[in-house]
Design goal:
single chain, 2 helices, alpha+beta
């Protein structure tokens, strides 16, 4: 998960956990901007969810948008 690691080393953060009625979501921010918010689907492991999150980070920097 090199992109998550690089983001954190650069002062960004990720948050994983329940929010409202959503059982598990992950949010990535670079300190000023939320880069991505992903909802963990039923049956998806936490490891798979974090890997998807890691793949999403460079998409933001490459094209300025993310998607789950």
């Amino acid at each position: 998960m090199k992109h998550i690691e690089a983001l954190i080393e650069d002062g960004g953060d990720i948050t994983v956990g329940a929010t409202g009625y959503i059982e598990c979501a992950a949010t990535v921010a670079d300190g000023h901007t939320v880069l991505a918010m992903l909802v963990r689907r039923d049956g998806k492991t936490l490891a798979a969810h974090l890997k998807q999150l890691d793949r999403t980070i460079p998409r933001y920097f490459d094209i300025g948008e993310t998607s789950g």
